[in-house]
# Entry
Amino acid sequence: MLIVGGGLAGLITSIRLVRWGIECVLIEKKSYPFHRVCGEYVSNETTPFLKKENLFPESFNPPQLNQFQLTSVSGKSKKINLDLGGFGISRFSYDRFLYQMALQEGVNVITNHEVEQAEFNEEEDIFNVTSTDQRFTSTLVIGSFGKRSKLDKSLNRNFMDKRSPYVGVKYHIHTQHPDNLIALHNFNGGYCGVSNIEFGKTNLCYLVHRNQVKRFKNIAELEETILHQNPWLKSLFTNSKFLFDKPEVINEISFETKEPVWKHILMAGDAAGMIAPLCGNGMAMAIHSAKILSDSILQCKQENRSRFWLENTYRNKWNSMFAQRLRAGRLIQNNLFGSEWSSRIAIQLAINSESLTQLIIRKTHGEAF
Ligand SMILES: Cc1cc2nc3c(=O)[nH]c(=O)nc-3n(C[C@H](O)[C@H](O)[C@H](O)COP(=O)(O)OP(=O)(O)OC[C@H]3O[C@@H](n4cnc5c(N)ncnc54)[C@H](O)[C@@H]3O)c2cc1C
# Structure
């Protein structure tokens, strides 16, 4: 089994498969540990599964987040309690923890290698995979290479034709922020999540439309001119200690529809479909897709089923679990990033109606598993 990409989806799939005696090679482009642009809030829908599988980052004592604050550009604020909530952990720590677990369980993890091509040979019923300087063959390939990869291009995936206008920026800071609170502060052309992670640090991560970024010389100027209009953000930016030399930044974040199976590759996590970050559910979906994919592979092996059966079973499970959530996420994202006018109305509505905010949370989250 060959797994391309070692984020949450790839690492968790590999760990489960080797535990069942299925050999796995996982190829990751970077080397651990490293920072990623991510709000680092993990929905508690994953907690029972993570604890049962011994994959919960217990030793980091991650803060539990059970209160949500939404603020408008002008600083109007509303707080509500979260029924399920989540926990905060940096990807630097969590991915490294899972990587070490994968090595310990016997996954063959190859880091610093980028997969450039993965082609299925119908006649031989096998994949030929090429990375930076190695060739592999495998009967199954799992694509867990995240939201946008070189490999998407060589696989001719449809969403790659469309440019995506979103830019993501992340910092770790030291600041005064309640341990149980996840805040979503809005600004013109974007939104910024703030919540605590391990060891008393706070994650500050925002998504902004490219058009806003283009108006300014650099990120610092964008932040001072646009983000600081929201008094909550101004206070955070001026009263905190920023822990990175420079922000983590990514471009071309796409929420276009993707396919959970493409050219016989079984996609997991963001590679199968990415939910808008404001939903705070991408990591939970990556973890859950790793579970349903590894379960399907195990069942396929135990019952000696065909590739066709495996692809259909996984596609159906994935669609029934996530397709609706992704649609809801896209709808909310489009409203928030529509005209300034529609965005302002949407935020005001959510601030004034607790039941609407609760409904949005329900529509973009799953049940505990
Ligand atoms: C601004 C922003 C904020 C977010 N905030 C949150 C949040 O608070 N909560 C939440 O739940 N979700 C959040 N998300 C979403 C979350 O980060 C993703 O859904 C999650 O990381 C998906 O995990 P993954 O394993 O699918 O992919 P990733 O974590 O992206 O892992 C993919 C891996 O594949 C590797 N790779 C890529 N191409 C190749 C290749 N060709 N060969 C080898 N390796 C390759 C990459 O280096 C990477 O390590 C946010 C996203 C953004 C953009």
